[in-house]
Write a structure and sequence with these properties.
The complex is a heterodimer of chains A (about 110) and B (about 400). By secondary structure, chain A is mainly β. Chain A is built from 2 helices and 8 strands, in the order E-E-E-E-H-E-E-E-H-E. In chain A, strands 3-5-6-7 form a 4-stranded antiparallel β-sheet. The termini of chain A are far apart. About 10% of the residues of chain A have low confidence. Chain B folds into 2 domains: about 180 residues, FAD/NAD(P)-binding domain (3-Layer(bba) Sandwich); about 150 residues, D-Amino Acid Oxidase, subunit A, domain 2 (D-Amino Acid Oxidase, Chain A, domain 2, 2-Layer Sandwich). Chain B has 9 helices and 20 strands. The longest helix of chain B has 16 residues. Chain B is globular and about 65 Å long. Classes of the chains: A mainly beta (about 110), B alpha+beta (about 400). Chains A and B meet through strand 3 and helix 1 of A and helix 7 of B.
């Protein structure tokens, strides 16, 4: 079985984790246009590549960030959630945000 | 069976990317109904080697939204005489299709789907557990006590067909009418000038064309990058498996949303089984042991006597998922670039009607009325179609 290294719990079987979608900066809903908002809500960078993703260790309810190659299913690194706010180094397949959009902090899909 | 073309022409009226069922059906109807025959179908692998050859071959029209029901019912109608049209046996076999309900809320959804279906003249009924037991005598209606079956949505026209033959039939029909099918030919770029398509770059050189149809399930985002279009499509693998052949005991097709199982028995006795999507984004078709274990245990909840039956093969396909479980079809903001995508886990049954409607759309440059609920721009307008009934099992 594949093992994921959780920043809190160490190496655990991947079946203990839930996928929360790509880490994507959200535009500020008060100032962005309807088009920018629909792009954020619906559109995804669907092509394979190295992407930062939200994952949750279900048993401990711990959310963190994973850098994963979605073409080969290889985990390249795991980071605590604060890293998403402090800024992650650019990833090869990351979602390109539309230019000139004011950004708020990213939140996991379906995490609220 | 197919004409071999040694070289590509300098240009075509239409280029179709992807020689799966959808792409070949579009080529067939373009040539047959619209008399557009200067068409190339480009395939990076081999004919029907993608999701056309990886699905579990179920054909049904018991959907949830009016858009979905009308669309799939037209497809079901087209399936009926396809074998004759192709002069090829598709092994189209009407079995009846049970979507099992294990909870009160699932029963409510089944009644809802049955009413929407009947309103559009589609034969579906909400039935009770006794009816299910009569139709499938070997089922353990209590499911080992875990999740007793309360009833089902019974869809009489539910059928299975031989999926490879569908691609071969459409391919041969298109080929006979002058369409060129080029296998081992990968599209590496799409040329767009002034917002219009002017040609495609391939591993065998450039082809000029004013119209491109993209029908490449699982690879759609990569092709969309070539024309710089963003969509909600995300890709997860979907796995399936077959058992060793056993004597015929299962006539209908059975789906259980709660147990994440769909199963039918083929003419040669194998059980074809599928479950839900793999739980995270991935662009490779490796199968997993987790999948076999999970699916086998749920099969045994319903059919404990299968415990000695062996699994012969398992495989995966790449599913283009959308947030509203409806496809994305028709014209796009790039003139001359047409999309037949977002087919998730339910594209096989729609093959004929996709070919029909996309050939119309490509020939006229306007969306066919049956696909108006599935347009590219519906997300920007916040008008989703909400076809959760599309998913045989919960995703």
């Amino acid at each position: 079985m594949k093992i994921m290294v959780c920043p809190l719990n160490g190496p655990r079987p991947v079946s203990e984790f839930a996928y929360g979608g790509e880490v994507r900066p959200s535009p500020d809903p008060d100032t962005c246009s309807d088009t920018q908002w629909s792009d954020y809500v619906f559109n995804r960078s669907g092509s394979p590549g190295e992407k930062y993703e939200w994952w949750c260790h279900i048993a401990s309810g711990f959310w963190f960030v994973v850098l994963r190659d979605t073409l080969r299913d290889v985990v390249l690194g795991t980071f605590p959630a604060e890293a998403a706010r402090q800024g992650l180094p650019p990833a090869a397949g990351a979602s390109a945000a539309p230019p000139d959009v004011p950004h708020g902090p990213g939140v996991p899909d379906g995490a609220s | 069976m197919f004409t071999r073309h040694d070289s590509l022409k300098a240009g075509y009226d239409v280029v179709i990317i992807g020689a799966g069922g959808h792409g070949l059906a579009a080529a067939y109807y373009l040539a047959r109904d619209h008399r557009i025959r200067n068409v190339a179908v480009l395939e990076k692998g081999y004919i029907g080697g993608g999701n056309t050859g990886r699905n579990t071959t179920i054909i049904r029209s018991n959907y949830l939204t009016p858009e979905g029901v009308k669309f799939y019912d037209e497809s079901l109608r087209l399936w009926q005489d396809l074998g004759e049209d192709f002069d090829l046996n598709l092994f189209y076999s009407v079995r009846g299709h049970y979507t099992l309900a294990h909870t009160d809320s699932a029963m409510r959804t089944m009644r809802w789907r049955a009413e929407v279906n009947k309103h559009f003249g589609v034969r579906s009924e909400a039935v009770d557990a006794a009816f299910v037991k009569r139709g499938i005598p070997s089922i353990d209606i209590s499911c080992g006590g875990h999740a007793p079956i309360l009833g089902a949505l019974f869809h009489e026209p539910g059928a299975i067909a031989r999926h490879d033959a569908v691609a071969w039939g459409y391919g041969r029909g298109a080929d006979k009418r002058g369409v060129e099918i080029h296998q081992q030919t990968e599209v590496t770029g799409i040329r767009v000038q002034g917002g219009r398509v002017t040609g495609v770059e391939t591993t065998r050189g450039f082809i000029a064309t004013p119209k491109v149809l993209c029908a490449v399930a699982g690879f759609t985002p990569r092709v969309l990058d070539m024309v710089k279009l963003r969509t909600p499509i995300y890709v997860h693998p979907l796995q399936a498996m077959v058992s060793e052949p056993v004597k015929p005991w299962l006539d209908p097709i059975i789906v259980s949303g709660s147990l994440h199982v769909y199963v039918s028995q083929t003419a040669r006795g194998e059980l074809v089984m599928g479950a839900s999507l793999d739980p995270y984004e991935l662009h490779m078709t490796r199968p997993t042991l987790d999948f076999v274990e999970g699916l086998a245990s749920h099969m045994l909840d319903m059919f404990p006597f299968l415990s000695e039956v062996k699994v012969n093969r398992q495989w995966a396909g790449l599913a283009d998922m959308t947030p509203d479980f409806a496809p994305i079809m028709g014209v796009t903001p790039v003139e001359g670039f047409y999309l037949d995508a977002g087919w998730g886990t339910w594209g096989f049954k729609a093959t004929p009607v996709c070919g029909k409607t996309m050939s119309h759309t490509v020939a006229t440059g306007r969306n066919h009325p049956l696909i108006e609920g599935f347009t590219f721009d519906r997300f920007a307008r916040y008008q989703l179609t909400g076809e959760k009934g599309a998913a045989s099992v919960g995703h």
